[in-house]
Specification:
alpha+beta; elongated; 23 helices
Length: 764
C-alpha cells in the first residue's frame, strides 16, 4: 500500500473522520448507563472449573457455607445483661432477615445438659433465655459453663469470654447474587446501627461483606483512577508538547477507545470486575503512545519547514509500521492472558488486547484528519534542520559506543545479582490479603483472628463408605483422632466442629465421659434425640448428607500463606488416605487456595506465549535469526529484575504480579520496536553505526522516554488502590517499564555497537 496515497485519502475525508468517530463513540457510550459491577466469588472461576463444580456439589449436599457475621468485644466480658441483650436482639433481627437460613449465637446456642431433678433426662435448650432476668451469680455461672463448652469456645465466644460472634448462615445460592450481598450488607449495617447506643464497636464479616468489598473497591478505582490518569496524562502531555493540540489529540484517542471498548463489553452482557474496572487506565497507558509518536514526528517535520500536509505524510510514513507493530505486540501481550483460568484476568486480557488494536486504528484515522483540519502553527527551528546529527543525539551515540563493553558488563553483573532473588519468590493468592489492612473487611478478619478464632474455614467432607455409616463408633473415633491430630500438627487450626462433638457431649451428660460410645445404637439415639430437641431452623442436616454417609468437619484456620493452605489441605487428605475413609477439603477457603496454581500458570504460560508470539512477529519483520536475542532479552530482563527484587524484599507474587508479566512484555517491546525499526532505516540508507544510533536517539529517544514517563505514571496510580493485586500490578509494571527504557536506550545500543560495528549490519 502506498502510504502517501493512504494519508491523502484520510486528509480528503478529514471531516468525515473528525465527526463520525466522536459520534459513534457517543452513541456507544450511551450504553454505559447499564454498566454493572460483579463481586461474587464465582467470577474468579470459569463455569467449567472443576474447583467450582466440586464446591457446588458440596453446597448441594450440605447447604451454603457462607454467612453474614457480626462480632463485638466487651473488655469486661460479654456475660453481662447489656452485652447479652445486644446478642439476643441481633440474633432475633437476623432471624427475620431475608436470605438468612440459620442464626447461631451465644444466646440461642443449643446447650445440652441434664436435669438436676431427673439426671437420666437430657435437656437441649437455648443457653440463655432472657438475659435481663439473670442475676450476677447466674451470669457468672453461665460464663463458667460456657468456658467448658468446646462446641462454642473459639467459635462464637472467645476463650477469655470477652468477644462474641453472631453467625447468620445464608440460604442456598444467596451469596451468588451481588444484589443479595448488597441487601444483606445493608441489613447488617442497619441492625448494628440500632445497637449503637450500647457503645460497642461492631465488625461485619462473611461472604456478603467480602463480595461488596470487591465491588466497592472496583467502583472506587474506576471512578477515581480514570479521571486521575487523564489529568496526569494532560499535565505530562502539556509539559512535553507545550500546545493544546498535542495534548487534546492524544487524549481524544484513548478516551474514544476505552469508551467504545467498555460499551461493547456492556452490550455483550459482561459485568465489570476488579480487573476490568482498570480498563480505562490500561487504555490511557498503552493507547497514548501511538498518538504521541505520531504527533512528535509531525512536529519534527513542521519545525524542519514542511507544509502541514507534508508533515502529516512524513509522520505517518515514519510511524505507521512501528505503531502497527507495537499495537500488535501490545495486543499479543494482553491477549496471552486469555490462557488464564482466572476469569477476570481472561476477560481483562481480551478486552485490553482489543483496545490496543482499536487505539491504533483511531490514531491513524483521527489524528491525521484533525491535524489536517487544525493546521497548528509550528515555528521552524534550526535545530531540526539536520535529520540525525543534533548535539544530544550524537553525544548519546558516542557515549554508548565509547563505553559499550563497560555498559554490558556492568549491566550483566547488576542483573545477575538482582536476578538471584527469583529463587526466593513465593506465590500467595490468599483472598483476605487482596485488601489493604485499613479496608473494613480486612479489619474485621484481623479482629476475628486476634480475639476469637481462625477467620478461614476448611470444610472437610469424610465419606464413611455406607449408608448410616457416620453412626459407626469406629468412624466417629477416627474423626475425633483426626481433629486432635490436625490441631496438633498445625497451630494455625484454631477450632474444629462436627457431629462428633454432639455425640461426645451427650455421652458426657449421660455417662460422665466426653468420648465416643462403643455402641452404634447409642450414637444413633444421641443424634436422634438431639435433632428432635432442636428448634426449627437449627437442624443438623447441614452437618451430614441425607443418607447419613458423609460427615462434614469444619476447621477454623488463621490467615496463612496460600502455600501453607495447600500444605495443610494435602496433609488432611493424606491423613485420611491412611484410613478406610476417603476425605476431601472443600469450601471457599480451599477454592481460593487452589487458585494459586491458576496464578502461577497465568504468570508462566502467558509470559511464554507472549515471548513466543512477539519473537515470531519480530522474526517475520526483520527476517534474521541472529536478532532473536534482541527481541527477547531486552523485554524479559525487566520482568526478571523486578521479580528478583520482589524475592530479595520478600514480596509475594499474587494475581496482580501474574497479570503484569505478559503485559510488560507486550508494552516494553514497543520501545524496542521503535528503536530497531528506525535503526534499520538508517543502516539501510547507508549510515554509519554512529550516525544510525544518533538517528534513533533523534527520532525515537525522546519519544520513548516521554511515553515511558506517561506509562509509568499511569500504572503507578494503581499503587493508590486498596485492592492489593492492583497495587502490586502497578508498582511491578511501572518499575519494569522504567528498567526496559534504560535497557533499550543503553544496553541495546551497546550491544549493537559491539555486534554491528562492521561493514555488514546485523539488522539491515
Amino acid at each position: 500500500m502506498n502510504i502517501d496515497r493512504f494519508v491523502d485519502g484520510i486528509i480528503r475525508l478529514r471531516w468525515w473522520a473528525a465527526l463520525l468517530i466522536p459520534l459513534i463513540t457517543l452513541a456507544l457510550a450511551s450504553q454505559l448507563r447499564y454498566l454493572q459491577f460483579e463481586g461474587s466469588y464465582r467470577i474468579w472461576f470459569g463455569e467449567e472449573s472443576p474447583i467450582l463444580r466440586q464446591y457446588d456439589d458440596f453446597r448441594s449436599v450440605f447447604g451454603n457455607d457462607d454467612a453474614l457475621l457480626i462480632m463485638f468485644r466487651d473488655d469486661h466480658g460479654v456475660f453481662n445483661p447489656k452485652a447479652l441483650g445486644v446478642v439476643e436482639r441481633i440474633t432475633e433481627a437476623l432471624w427475620q432477615t431475608t436470605d438468612i437460613a440459620r442464626v447461631d449465637s451465644l444466646t440461642n446456642y443449643q446447650y445440652v445438659h441434664s436435669d438436676p431433678e431427673y439426671p437420666d433426662d437430657v435437656i437441649v435448650e437455648d443457653f440463655i433465655g432472657d438475659p435481663s432476668a439473670l442475676s450476677p451469680e447466674q451470669l457468672a455461672e453461665k460464663a463458667r459453663i460456657a468456658a467448658g463448652e468446646e462446641m462454642i469456645v473459639g467459635r462464637i465466644v472467645s476463650a477469655d469470654m470477652k468477644t462474641t460472634m453472631i453467625a447468620a448462615r445464608l440460604t442456598p445460592k444467596a451469596g451468588d447474587d451481588p444484589e443479595v450481598s448488597a441487601r444483606l450488607k445493608a441489613a447488617g449495617e442497619a441492625i448494628v446501627a440500632r445497637e449503637s447506643a450500647s457503645g460497642y464497636t461492631f465488625h461485619l464479616g462473611g461472604g456478603p461483606i467480602l463480595n461488596m468489598a470487591f465491588i466497592h473497591l472496583g467502583e472506587h478505582d474506576v471512578k477515581v483512577f480514570t479521571p486521575f490518569v487523564l489529568l496526569i496524562a494532560m499535565v505530562l502531555l502539556w509539559f512535553i508538547f507545550r500546545r493544546p493540540s498535542g495534548m487534546l489529540l492524544s487524549l481524544s484517542v484513548v478516551i474514544f477507545t476505552f469508551l467504545i471498548v467498555l460499551a461493547v463489553q456492556v452490550l455483550l452482557g459482561y459485568r465489570v470486575n476488579n480487573f476490568t474496572a482498570n480498563l480505562p487506565v490500561f487504555v490511557v497507558a498503552i493507547g497514548i503512545a501511538d498518538a504521541m509518536h505520531l504527533f512528535w514526528i509531525y512536529l519534527v517535520g513542521r519545525r524542519r519547514g514542511m507544509a502541514n500536509r507534508d508533515a502529516i505524510r512524513f509522520s505517518v510514513r515514519k510511524n505507521l509500521l512501528p505503531t502497527l507493530l507495537t499495537s500488535l505486540t501490545t495486543a499479543v501481550g494482553f491477549a496471552s492472558l486469555a490462557v488464564s483460568d482466572v476469569i477476570p484476568v481472561k476477560t481483562l486480557g481480551i478486552a485490553t488486547a482489543t483496545a490496543a488494536l482499536l487505539a491504533f486504528v483511531l490514531t491513524i484515522l483521527f489524528v491525521p484528519a484533525m491535524l489536517a483540519i487544525l493546521n497548528p502553527k509550528v515555528a521552524q527551528s534550526e535545530e531540526e534542520e539536520s535529520e540525525s546529527h543534533d548535539a544530544f543525539s550524537l553525544g548519546s551515540a558516542r557515549f554508548v559506543m565509547r563505553h559499550d563493553r563497560g555498559i554490558l558488563l556492568g549491566s550483566l553483573l547488576l542483573f545477575t545479582l538482582i536476578g538471584i532473588g527469583i529463587a526466593w519468590v513465593k506465590v500467595d493468592s490468599n483472598t483476605v490479603r487482596y485488601f489493604k489492612e485499613h479496608v473494613p473487611f480486612r479489619e474485621t478478619v484481623t479482629f476475628v483472628q486476634r480475639h476469637l478464632t481462625g477467620p478461614m474455614a476448611y470444610e472437610v467432607v469424610v465419606d464413611s463408605g455406607e449408608k448410616d455409616g457416620i453412626k459407626s463408633p469406629e468412624f466417629m473415633q477416627t474423626v475425633a483422632r483426626f481433629t486432635d491430630a490436625f490441631k496438633a500438627e498445625y497451630p494455625a487450626v484454631r477450632h474444629t466442629t462436627s457431629l462428633v462433638d454432639v455425640v461426645e457431649k451427650f455421652n458426657d451428660v449421660m455417662n460422665g465421659s466426653p468420648t465416643i460410645p462403643a455402641e452404634r445404637n447409642l450414637i444413633a439415639q444421641y443424634l436422634l434425640l438431639y435433632s428432635l430437641s432442636l428448634p426449627q431452623g437449627m437442624e443438623i442436616n447441614d452437618r451430614m448428607d441425607v443418607d447419613e454417609r458423609q460427615l462434614r468437619v469444619t476447621a477454623s484456620v488463621d490467615i496463612v500463606d496460600t502455600s501453607l493452605d495447600l500444605e495443610m489441605m494435602r496433609w488432611v487428605e493424606a491423613w485420611w488416605a491412611q484410613t478406610p475413609y476417603p476425605a476431601r477439603v472443600n469450601g471457599q477457603a480451599a477454592m481460593f487456595a487452589h487458585m494459586q496454581h491458576d496464578v502461577t500458570d497465568t504468570l508462566v504460560e502467558s509470559i511464554l506465549l507472549a515471548i513466543a508470539a512477539v519473537s515470531l512477529m519480530m522474526l517475520l519483520i526483520f527476517r534474521n535469526l541472529r536478532m532473536i536475542p534482541l527481541f527477547i532479552i531486552p523485554n524479559v530482563l525487566p520482568i526478571a529484575l523486578v521479580v528478583g527484587v520482589m524475592g530479595w524484599l520478600g514480596i509475594t507474587i499474587d494475581l496482580g504480579v501474574a497479570v503484569s508479566g505478559a503485559i510488560i512484555i507486550g508494552v516494553a517491546v514497543d520501545d524496542t520496536i521503535h528503536f530497531l525499526v528506525k535503526y534499520r532505516e538508517a543502516r539501510r540508507e547507508g549510515e554509519s553505526l554512529e550516525a544510525a544510533l544518533a538517528y534513533v536517539y533523534h527520532y525515537a529517544g525522546k519519544a520513548i522516554v516521554f511515553t515511558t514517563l506517561i506509562l509509568s505514571a499511569a500504572f503507578m496510580i494503581f499503587a493508590l488502590s486498596d485492592f492489593v493485586p492492583n497495587v502490586n500490578f502497578g508498582i511491578v509494571t511501572a518499575s519494569a517499564l522504567v528498567i526496559a527504557v534504560l535497557i533499550d536506550l543503553l544496553m541495546l545500543p551497546a550491544w549493537l555497537s559491539l555486534a554491528d560495528s562492521g561493514k555488514r549490519s546485523l539488522i539491515a
